[in-house]
Amino acid sequence: MLEGINILVAEDNPLNQKIANYILRKQHATVASALNGREAINLLRENNFDIILMDLQMPEMDGYMATSFIRKDMQNNIPIVAVTASISETEMDRSIAGGMTAYISKPFDPDSLCEMILDLVRERKFNI
Fold it and tell me: Is 80 exceeded by the pLDDT of residue 126?
């Protein structure tokens, strides 16, 4: 389903990272992982990703700060999906206002996540 799609997973929790990587690789995506926003930015500078799954609460640099840097300093319009354990309406608004493209709460349904990724990647490729 996700063959040919390069995904960056920014997640500080090793178990959550492992689960996301398993789900995405099972769908034939290429996946790289970062433990915080700073690592995600460094990987994005060195690689060509199609989409980022960005945990909001990470040490060193959280998802909000990393997204702001990607949008403003890097001038990159890559789709960024906010991923969080409990997303309130305030967090949804803050993530979208901060430059994130979409959001999904943990635990997520694997099929819903894959469909979201496909939709966002297709939309970006048609709008470039």
Answer: no
